[in-house]
Specification:
By secondary structure, the protein is of the alpha+beta class. The protein has helices at 41-48, 76-85; strands at residues 2-13, 22-32, 54-56, 59-70, 93-94. It has a five-stranded mixed β-sheet with strand order 3-4-1-2-5, with no helix packed on it.
């Protein structure tokens, strides 16, 4: 089996509506378990985009990357949690599609 890993970029507006000042504030990871739509990944991404992305005058989160990975794949954040804490407290957000 495989899962779809989706990575986003988060930006916040530290300015105003009239004079925006956007600053990148990190990213988030999302997973779709038991992924099987290998021949239509982009179509699938478009169908779940509204569950992930946000775009308003003060906060934005947009998909910047996706990849099909094995079921046991751990994100960088999950690997660091295991390394330093011995357990994963904050796994990637699971999307039900």
């Amino acid at each position: 089996m495989a899962k779809l890993l989706i990575t986003t970029q988060i930006r916040e507006n530290y300015g105003s509506l009239d004079n925006p000042h956007w600053k990148s504030k990190g990213s988030s990871d999302y997973v779709v378990k038991n992924f099987t739509e290998f021949n239509a990944i982009q179509v699938f991404i478009m169908s779940i985009r509204d569950q992930i992305e946000t775009d308003n005058p003060f906060f934005q989160e947009h998909i910047v990357n996706y990849d099909v990975v094995t079921d046991d794949y751990l994100t960088r954040d999950e690997r660091l949690q295991l390394q330093f804490d011995g357990k994963i407290k904050y796994p990637a957000t699971e999307i039900n599609a």
